[in-house]
Amino acid sequence: MNIDWILVLEKFLLIATVVTISLVIAMYETWSERKIAALLQDRRGPTRAGPFGLFQPLADGLKLFMKEEIIPNSANRFLFILGPCLAMMAAMMTSAVIPFGGTIEVAGRQVDLQVADVNIGVLYVFAVVSLGVYGIMIGGWASNNKFSLMAALRAASQAISYELAMGLSLIALLFMSGSLSMRDIVTQQMAGDWGGFLGWNVLYQPLGFLIFLIAAFAECNRTPFDLPEAENELNFGYHQEYSSMKLGFYLFAEYINMFISSVIMATLFFGGYDMPFFNESAHAHWGNWLALVGIIALTLKVGFFIFLFMWVRWTIPRFRYDQLMNLGWKKLVPLALANMVITGAVVLWLNDK
């Protein structure tokens, strides 16, 4: 068996780039969170650490590294360490099937800006996302702290409940696309009129997108669904006993999940790296610059969703837990099922014409 070492190196560099960019974005999401909160609350936010407070994430990271590592005597040491590692790993693995751009040419080779273009990309995303629940649950249980366990139970039941609504909301979209490949879904959207804009799935699945968006808030434990970390109810949450970089892994995993969720929403519903009102096929001679245009388009869409996550956090109060579960099971799941049935009927009707 001959191994294409150039391809191995190509994928290794692509994985390293995606991981690095995800970590840097997660770092500066903490800075953006503080700045947006300050803007909404009429204050300045971080200003001391570097110009405009841009070095604040570096100071926070250094603080986490310098803090003392504490593992409770009554905790299960192996699982206590495994929990945050699993949460971080699940957050990073999701990015493997996301197309971050088109194709670039490097030294005569065509390189796809996607780690793995598998034909079950959407299923892969849900399989990996479900692993994050184990990271939270293991961490809460291994702490041997009743408050941590209670928060972990909340987090697990919340994640499982909203994953169901999220998955059902995508089935209607898959009826239309006929493919589970993320790149195929983007390519189909780019084929629409007005430079691909009229092909965006959000125009045909507005209810599916709304359900997915609400479920994404719950999956990322963002306000108003931040019940697993409700400090005034649960003391601190499922990572109460964690310190130093183990705590940092849990916090980073949440911000990476927010970034990845934004990329997935942009990819599935907003054309991914498609620049609206711009015909990419007519500018194929641009080469690598055309791929840069796609990366910029995706970055702007992702930036909007990240801003939306933060805007909602500092605007809407937290739900009660019964309200959260009622919304998931009694509102979103029936709406997603109805949307799926209606979409399936319309697709069959159009195919029979």
Domain count = 1
Specify Rg, calculated over alpha carbons. 21 Å
Shape: globular
Lateral strand order in the biggest sheet: 1-2
* Count of discrete alpha- or pi-helical segments spanning 4 or more residues: 11
First and last CA, distance: 49 Å
Helix content: 55-70%
Structural class: mainly alpha
Which stretches of 5+ consecutive residues score pLDDT under 50?
Answer: none
Please provide the ordered H/E string of secondary-structure elements: HHHEEHHHHHHHH
Number of strands: 2
The average pLDDT score comes to 88
In words, what does this structure look like?
- With 353 residues, this protein is mainly alpha-helical.
- The protein has one domain.
- A two-stranded antiparallel ribbon has the order 1-2.
- Helix 3 runs antiparallel to helix 4 and helix 3 runs parallel beside helix 9.
- It is globular, with a radius of gyration of 21 Å.
- 39% of the residues are buried.
Supply the key terms.
353 residues; mainly alpha; two-stranded antiparallel ribbon; 2% strand
Short synopsis of the structure:
The chain has 353 residues and is an all-alpha fold. The protein has one domain. It has eleven helices and two strands; from the N terminus they run H-H-H-E-E-H-H-H-H-H-H-H-H.
Walk me through the topology.
Blueprint: H1 5-40, H2 56-66, H3 77-93, E1 103-106, E2 109-112, H4 121-142, H5 146-177, H6 182-190, H7 206-219, H8 231-234, H9 244-269, H10 288-313, H11 321-352
Antiparallel strand pairs: 1-2
